[in-house]
C-alpha cells in the first residue's frame, strides 16, 4: 500500500492575522482588554478632574480671619487652599510647655522661635503656637522662662495668626540631642509635659502679636499659586498610556500566536515535502 503523492494532498492556506484575531479566544481577550482600558480611562478622567480647580479661592482670601474650627480639624492634614489662612483661636496656655525652636529666620537673620502649647476650647484640642522670635538663644530661653512663670493656666486668651503645615520632625543635632530645629507639632508634643487626653492639631499657628517682649515673626501671605495641578495631569496622562498599552498587549499576544501558527504550518509542510 503506497502513500498518496504530495500533489494529491489538499492545499493548506495559512490564516491571516485578521482571521486569528476574530477567533473566539482572542475576541474574549479583547473584551477583557476593553474592560481594563475603561477602568484606566475612568481613572484618568478622575485624575484630570482633580488637576483643575474649577472654583479657586479669590485673591487675598487667606488674609480674612476665620475661626480655626472652619479651617482645620485636629489630627487631620490641611488642604492646600487653606494653608497659610489667618485664623482666630481661643484657649489657655500651658505654663510648662514654652519651648524654643532653633534655625528660625526673620528677614534673613537666623534666630529662635519661642513656641507655646495652647489648649484650644473650640474644638477642645492642643495647638502649637509660635509666639515670637529672638536673635539669640539666651534671649529666647529668657523669654520662655518668663512666659512660663507669668502665664495663668486658667486665663482664656484669644489670638489671631497664620496656620501653617507641619514641617516634619528631624533628628536633633549631635551637639544637643534636645534641640528642635523644625517647627513640628509632633516633635513639640514629645516635649510637652501636660498633654492630657485632648486631640492635637497637625498644624501650628504663627501668632500675629508676639509675647514676652519677643519680636514679630515674619509670616507673609502664601503665593496664590496655580489653579492647575500639573502632577495630577501627569498622572492622568499615565492612565491614558496604560489604557493604550492594554490594547497593544492584546494585539501583540494575538500576533505572536499567529506567527507561531505560521511557523508550525511551515514546519509541517517541510516534513511532508
From TrEMBL:
Report the transmembrane regions from the record.
26-44, 230-251
Species: Microbacterium binotii
Q: Which domain of life is it from?
A: Bacteria
One short Pfam name that applies is SURF1
| Topology versus the membrane | Multi-pass membrane protein
UniProt record similarity statement: Belongs to the SURF1 family.
**Protein name, please?**
SURF1-like protein
Q: Establish whether keyword Transmembrane is in the entry.
A: yes
The listed locations are: Cell membrane
**Keywords, ordered alphabetically:** Cell membrane, Membrane, Transmembrane, Transmembrane helix
Amino acid at each position: 500500500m503506497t502513500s498518496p503523492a504530495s500533489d494529491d494532498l489538499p492545499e493548506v492556506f495559512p490564516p491571516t492575522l485578521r482571521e486569528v484575531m476574530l477567533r473566539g479566544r482572542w475576541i474574549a481577550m479583547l473584551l477583557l482588554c476593553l474592560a481594563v482600558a475603561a477602568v484606566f480611562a475612568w481613572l484618568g478622567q478622575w485624575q484630570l478632574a482633580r488637576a483643575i480647580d474649577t472654583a479657586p479661592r479669590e485673591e487675598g482670601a487667606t488674609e480674612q480671619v476665620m475661626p480655626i474650627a472652619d479651617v482645620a480639624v485636629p489630627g487631620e492634614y490641611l488642604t492646600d487652599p487653606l494653608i497659610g489662612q489667618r485664623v482666630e483661636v481661643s484657649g489657655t496656655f500651658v505654663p510648662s510647655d514654652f519651648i524654643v525652636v532653633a534655625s528660625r529666620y526673620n528677614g534673613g537673620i537666623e534666630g529662635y522661635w519661642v513656641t507655646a502649647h495652647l489648649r484650644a476650647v473650640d474644638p477642645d484640642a492642643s495647638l502649637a503656637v509660635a509666639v515670637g522670635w529672638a536673635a539669640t538663644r539666651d534671649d529666647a530661653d529668657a523669654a520662655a522662662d518668663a512666659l512660663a512663670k507669668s502665664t495663668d493656666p486658667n486665663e482664656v486668651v484669644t489670638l489671631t495668626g497664620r496656620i501653617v503645615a507641619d514641617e516634619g520632625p528631624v533628628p536633633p543635632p549631635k551637639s544637643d540631642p534636645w534641640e528642635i530645629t523644625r517647627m513640628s507639632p509632633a516633635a513639640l508634643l514629645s516635649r510637652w509635659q501636660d498633654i492630657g487626653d485632648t486631640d492635637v492639631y497637625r498644624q501650628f499657628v504663627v501668632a500675629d502679636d508676639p509675647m514676652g517682649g519677643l519680636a514679630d515673626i515674619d509670616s507673609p501671605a502664601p503665593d496664590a499659586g496655580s489653579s492647575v495641578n500639573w502632577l495630577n495631569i501627569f498622572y492622568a496622562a499615565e492612565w491614558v498610556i496604560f489604557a493604550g498599552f492594554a490594547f497593544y498587549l492584546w494585539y501583540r499576544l494575538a500576533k505572536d500566536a499567529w506567527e507561531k501558527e505560521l511557523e508550525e504550518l511551515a514546519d509541517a509542510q517541510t516534513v511532508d515535502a
